[in-house]
Amino acid sequence: MIEVQKVNKSFQGKKILKDVSAVFVPGKVNMVIGKSGSGKTVLLKSLVGIHDIDSGAILFNKIDFTKIKQKDKINIRKEVGMLFQGSALFDSATIEENVMYPLDAFTDLSYKEKKKRADFCLDRVNMNDVNKLYPSELSGGMQKRAAIARAIALNPKYLFCDEPNSGLDPQTAIIIDKLIKEITYEYGITTVVNTHDMNSVFGISDSIVFINEGMAWWNGTRSMLFSSKNKELDDFLFSSEIMQRLKLKTV
After folding, report:
1. Is the pTM for the entire model greater than 0.85?
2. Following DSSP, what letter does each residue of the chain receive, concatenated?
3. Where are the domains of the chain?
4. Which of 1, 81, 180, 189 has a CB 3.0–4.6 Å from the CB of 151, allowing a cystine?
């Protein structure tokens, strides 16, 4: 479980996160939603340690990540998988080398063991026979699946996804969503997804945190979205493309 307690973060005197508190549950797809500039990306980067917070606490299974020694932070980072918005594969490395990268960085496994793990992860995301290809030889959706394979290479307890469907067509986005949900349930991972894609929210979310103007404005489940009676959340929902389509169908 990940617990966020009254987290604050500022940049150049501008407060981006304001006393944000949230709980992200293991074995579930936890989504962080909100408008561009709301602070959701800063929150995600704070969770993985890219940003140091100004105050508050971020707990991984009751351990405050913000207060432990660097060597202990490294041990927690070994349990973290990260899926970046643009996949962030290394262009000069093969897909196999990309997936093996965290194994090279954080384990003492032999090459044979690392290759076996890479093969397993690629097979898990339905990416057979691409080991020796380079990212430029793959479609956007295949690159995203390869990035998921890399993210799960260390068998993480925590998986963070930053706009995983960015730049993908709707059909491919559904495939990526399904894969994220399957992996979360299969391995009991605490998955946190930062998104503004309402198709994903309605498709695979278990719990939702709505960030508005740097604050945790609302939290609940997808079944609770339409009964929230929260004006800012309603405004956000009904401004989304999917909700506009639903609205048109009822006219």
Report:
1. yes
2. -EEEEEEEEEETTEEEEEEEEEEE-TTSEEEEE--TTSSHHHHHHHHTTSS--SEEEEEETTEETTTS-HHHHHHHHTTEEEE-TT----TTS-HHHHHHHHHHHH----HHHHHHHHHHHHHHTT-TT-TT--GGGS-HHHHHHHHHHHHTTT--SEEEEESTTTT--HHHHHHHHHHHHHHHHHHT-EEEEE---HHHHHHH-SEEEEEETTEEEEEE-GGGGGG---HHHHHHHHHSHHHHHHHHHH-
3. 1-79+189-251
4. 81
Q: What is the pLDDT of residues 20-72, one digit of tens each?
A: 999 999 999 999 999 888 899 999 999 988 899 999 999 999 999 999 888 88
Task: Give per-residue pLDDT as tens, 107-127.
Answer: 999 999 999 999 999 999 999
